[in-house]
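Assemble and predict.
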Amino acid sequence: MNQRAKTVATEIVEAVRDVLRRNKVTFAEYRAGFMHLAKTQAAGEIPLMLDLFFNTTIVQIENESRKGSKADIQGPYFVPNVPFVDHEIAIEEEHKAMPRMVMRGKVVDMSGTPVAGAVIDVWHSTPDGRYSGIERHGNLDKKYYRGKIKTDSEGRYEVRSIIPVPYQVPNKGPTGQLLEEYMGVHSWRPAHIHYWVQAEGLRDVIRQAYFEGGDYVHDDCCEGGGDEFIVAEAYEDGVRVMEVDFQLEPAQTLV
Ligand code: DHB
Ligand code: FE
């Protein structure tokens, strides 16, 4: 028997029972909830629903032990093995005229020493609020707005792209219904950029950056981020500058 699984599973069941008792949930209400979960399963939305409500909590727990840059939620749209990009991320032809941003910053270790050769995966939404390379978004074969960058000898990186827009999590299915109709909350995330930073011998970190002044920055349906992930509004020759530094702690050793 896995003692930890036993503890967590038992306490989850007890916590749910407690809510049912406190609210004197009727059999009809219980069956309605039961059917809603069955509908969520049939729509293939169990992973979406779990991540929406609990990923942030797990990241917060993880951050308690992080001494370097804090982590943020990964979200469902990371794609592995995308190509390295040089200066500019692949931008779809029809979006070439959209407002641009430059993403840049520095990767250092806990003593402040630059980390050369760190690999940073970056990915963000399309201007119509979807992600490329994702089957559910109907563009599995496209690899725009994502790429890998490597830090230079001073630990710096710099890459350009277009500015992403706020993103609405799928709200037509049972998860959206749960959010909007039953819980009375909206289904929008602020515009954001995802980063996954990895370097030899150091603990990797996944985070996001949000745009100061943007819609939903302080009202994210996924409760991602926090003030430390909001990047102050700055422009250089009319191009939005997203300066994001990372500090990596040593890789964790297994105990
Ligand atoms: C979801 C989408 C995102 O782009 C993200 O960063 C986090 C969550 C979602 O659809 O749940
Ligand atoms: Fe995202």
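The two ends are 20 Å apart (CA to CA).
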